[in-house]
Amino acid sequence: MKIELATEKDYKYIVERDRHIPETLVRTKINANEIFIIRDAEKEIGWMRYGYFWDSIPFMNMIWIDEEHRGQGVGKEIVLYWEEIMRKKGFELIMTSTQSNEDAQHFYRKIGYRDAGCLLLETQPLEVILTKNL
Description:
Elements: E1 2-5, H1 11-17, H2 23-31, E2 35-40, E3 43-53, E4 57-65, H3 74-88, E5 93-99, H4 104-110, E6 114-119, E7 127-133
Parallel strand pairs: 4-5
Antiparallel strand pairs: 1-2, 2-3, 3-4, 5-7, 6-7
């Protein structure tokens, strides 16, 4: 498995799977080095996208692992990889979130994230905000 910054050649793979971001922003995120692509034998198997909460705290927005590669530790590996990069950049706190009806909250807690609050929008399940000190 190999993790690297996404490039223009990864654009199609990402937009075909990422339904949580407007297609017009995918290139912006690629150009800002805010998407990591995960490959297995040179084939894309997933990605991780992040941004910044309050323009200052790294916030992991999305992890996607293709179905056949789930449950094999790929998600944990990309999160730990991203955490190390954020640590090297001098950040001491990182964030992510997940909906309360998703199992991802348990995954994040297992790897050291702590509940920091929640957000309730009219049309969505409760969004659980999680943080981790690096």
